[in-house]
Amino acid sequence: MPRVSLVVLAAGESKRFEAGNKLLFRVGGKSLIRRVVETALASLASEVVVVTGHQAELVEVEISDIRDERLRVVRNPAYSEGMSSSVRVGVASASPESEAVAVLPADVAFISPRAIDEVILAYARRRPRIAVASHAGRSGHPILFDRSLIPEILQIDEATMGLKAVVRRHRGEILRVPVGEREVLFDVDSLEDLKRVKGKIV
User: Fold this and answer.
1) pLDDT single digits (tens) 96-139
2) Surface-to-core class of residue 49, CB atoms within 10 Å of its CB (0-12 exposed, 13-18 middle, 19+ buried)
3) Domain residues for 26?
4) Contact 50/72 with Cβ under 8 angstroms?
């Protein structure tokens, strides 16, 4: 099994969320950040790197009692510059032994470990430069990058479209991995989004 670092992006300011930091909101008794980190740790990822920034202390408290040697938390002091800065911090913090890095926004909080595993297993079988979870023909998350692309990722910025620019440059090298859950397409942006899922979660 290849060593894959899973970078969870949890530094954002939740600007579109009407009621504070969405990662601290609870659904089914768990905050979104707790939910996504537990999912990540239940997957085949060899390590999970959580990038915090906005309200870092509050976010980190939510996962501070998780005891797993694969979990590391790093802070992005420049989180207000946008997601690209957090991607750079997370990828730069990945183990040098990792053969690939996968990126998962923390607000894609309702996927299963199996969805992450399917992307990692597809990478193990075919070794594409990019592998992405997809559902019904649409690409979602996580998105995995072969280690050979890390130098490019470390140069991204918001002004040049961030990770999207890397994906576009290598669009002929993307393996889309169909998974049987639409949650890979679903990120929480609003209270309405949470209401849509709340009734489905015990």
Assistant:
1) 999 999 999 999 999 999 999 999 999 999 999 999 999 999 99
2) buried
3) 4-198
4) yes
CA distance 73 to 67: 12
**Confidence class of residue 167 from pLDDT cuts 50, 70 and 90?**
very high
Question: Rounded to an integer, what distance in angstroms lies between the CA atom of residue 13 and that of residue 79?
Answer: 8
Compute the distance between CA of residue 52 and CA of residue 75 in angstroms, rounded to an integer. 5
Distance CA 113, CA 41 (A): 8
Residue 201, pLDDT > 70, answer: no
Q: Read off the CATH number of the domain in which 112 is found.
A: 3.90.550.10
Give the distance from CA 1 to its chain's centroid.
Answer: 20
Task: Label each residue of the chain as H, E or C.
Answer: CCCEEEEEEECCCCCCCCCCCHHHCEECCEEHHHHHHHHHHCCCCCEEEEEEECEHHHHHHHCCCCCCCCEEEEECCCHHHCHHHHHHHHHHCCCCCCCEEEEEECCCCCCCHHHHHHHHHHHHHHCCCEEEEEECCEEEEEEEEEHHHHHHHCCCCHHHCHHHHHHHHCHHHEEEEECCCHHHHCCCCCHHHHHHHHCCCC
Number of domains in the chain: 1
